[in-house]
Amino acid sequence: MNSEGPMEPADPLIWIEAVKYKEAAQADAHHDHEAYELYYLVSGERYFFIKDRTYHLHKGDLVLIPTHVLHKTSSARKDGHERILINFRWEALNGLLPEYEAQIPLMFAEFPHIRLSGKEQAVIRRILDSMLFEMEADKPGAERYARLLLAEMVLLLLRLTEGRHAEVAEFPNSLHHKVSEVARYIGDHYGEPITLNGLSDQFRISPFYLSRIFHQVTGLPVVSYINHVRVEEARLLLASTDLSVTEVALRTGYQSVTHFGRVFKSAVGLSPQKFRQEKGRG
Question: β-strands 36-43, 61-65: how paired?
Fold first, then answer.
């Protein structure tokens, strides 16, 4: 069996890869990263867990993932699939779409799953193929040209999603639906005490079964997912408010500032204080 693993952290502003799996790929490891991600399914079917729900992807579907959002793919069928993956840092679009800088992060947040029409697929595929050609040829100016093509695609997607409602897709099955309910509950109540046994009582599922299906769908144990949600909210509060580290810890569900500091540093690589200094609010 093949495994569709996460991309390694990259120094380039933009990174693109096309891979064809001849047999069903195992679930990849959960991951999140500093880059934005565009995932285009060329053929086959996949389950794609993003933040707090699973989407059932079909040929020609596009996935948009903002920075630091947990995501994981897994097989939806026994046969293979082909996909094109782009990761890019915000700096890749610097100066290319200045009037849309506020809209781009909103689009990535509001449209995790886009079901494209046949004509839309053809246009997106043309841009992707051009990007692949440039990056593989590795000629002078290749990255700059790829950035221009990326800007073209982002602008096209902004136009396609303008006035469009986000896809309200059916859950692949009851298991994914239940896990999504639990994940959304955690997202709404991360500031409160949350335990596996408490969630088990809330959703009337045995702790063992909940633990098993949650890890199967998200790639994380329940406690690790809770910490992920809390750390991401703490990032936002540290970067955008003047709340003390103690207040941030309490607001994100940590009763011990020392424990919060350990969890935050383990996830981010910096202490809360150092993170705030680097974000310019220290």
Answer: antiparallel
Annotate 42-61 with b (16+ C-beta within 10 A) or e (fewer). bebbbbbbbbbbbbbbeebb
pTM for this model (two decimals): 0.86
Task: Count Cβ atoms below 10 Å from residue 193 Cβ, excluding itself.
Answer: 8
Side-chain-side CA neighbours of 214 within 13 Å: the count stands at: 26
Instruction: Please state the φ and ψ torsions of residue 195, each to the nearest 5 degrees.
Output: -130, 160
Residue 8's pLDDT is 47
Q: Are strands 2-3 and 25-26 parallel, antiparallel or unpaired?
A: parallel
Strand-strand pairing, 79-88 and 61-65: unpaired
Residue 25's pLDDT band (boundaries 50, 70, 90)?
low
User: What's the N-to-C CA distance of the chain in angstroms?
Assistant: 48
Question: What CA–CA distance (Å, rounded) separates 40 from 42?
Answer: 6
Whether the Cβ atoms of residue 116 and residue 61 lie closer than 8 Å to each other: yes
CA distances from residue 125 to 22, 162, 252, 254 in whole angstroms, order as listed: 21, 20, 42, 46
**SS3 of 33, please?**
coil
Q: Which two tokens stand for residue 8?
A: 């390694």
Structural contact between residues 49 and 76, judged by C-beta atoms closer than 8 angstroms: no
Q: Which 3 state secondary structure label does DSSP give 14?
A: strand
Q: Would you place residue 282 in the very low, low, confident or very high pLDDT band (cuts 50, 70, 90)?
A: low
Give strand pairing partners of 82. Answer: 20, 43
Alpha-carbon distance 158 to 121, whole Å? Answer: 15
